[in-house]
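Re: weekly structure request thread

Next one in the queue (334 aa):
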Amino acid sequence: MTAFPSPGRHQVAVLVRDGVLPMELGIVHRLFGQAVSAGGDKLYEVVTCTLSPGEIRTDADFGVTVSTGVDALSEADTVVIPASTEDYESTDAQLSGPLTEALARIRPGTRLASICTGSFVLAAAGLLDGRPATTHWKSAEQFQALFPLVELDPDVLYTDDGDILTAAGVASGIDLCLHMIRCDHGSSVANAVARTTMVPPHRDGGQAQFIQRPVPDARQLSTAAVRAWALEHLDRPLTLCDLAARESMSKRTFTRRFRDEVGVSPGQWLAQQRVERARELLEKTDLAVDRIAEDAGFGTAASLRQHLQTSLGVSPSAYRRTFRGPAASPSPAN
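Done, posted below.
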């Protein structure tokens, strides 16, 4: 009997090991399981599998029973590997025999993703050599020592290198799953999943904001208000001077405070928000690309095309066709 009861859907296999973190397992099922088409049809089928079916130990005071074995890996379109407490104690860059055999069942071209220290499995299999990856900031030093050929970026929430993606820590698995849904089906579907799950559709910055530091002076100002204001005025030609002036800060102080809170510069953040606004308008409206460029704050269609190409690798017209279908009304300056 097949592991996936609905073979027409995108098949997601979650490979769990002893010591799995229940939250990471739940994230994958909850988010992919909530993704539906405009007609209400489920877009993904999610199955949990393990090396030896039965009760799997977790890092909590309960276990989980997994009845599906690794045969599910050979049927999957996406394989997600959550963390295990065993990863934190790893001093070996080699996989066990059973885990090596399990990964060998994965078909070429299958999308692979890890959450938290699940990246240790992908790295030990040699799948991350020469490629960007991330892991939990507490395990970054250990990871780099074990896998020096991996281009580790310990500051980001997740990495996307096409067919291999990695998430930093437990909750960043949410960011990664939403990102994959967004790549597969567009911002509208991903945003709907985020709303249903009551999480932000996109979090700014990286892991740096979560690393323990001395408690900041309560008198220091936040940039949250000006970020909320900027989102309401993306169509304007916002400058660093504009943003800093609204918080009565110098440009240098504002930039430092902004980067500390968000993880990126004000200019990078604005570009990200404008791309997201343009994606939403391309998916949901028939507006001409020139108009979308204006509403998103890019000014010209040429600027919008350049930013979409840099961020997503596609033109506005190609993005619209992908996520609205060939019936979408053509618009000039695509």
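Confidence is low (pLDDT under 50) at residues 205-219, 326-332. The chain has 14 helices and ten strands.
Next request, please.
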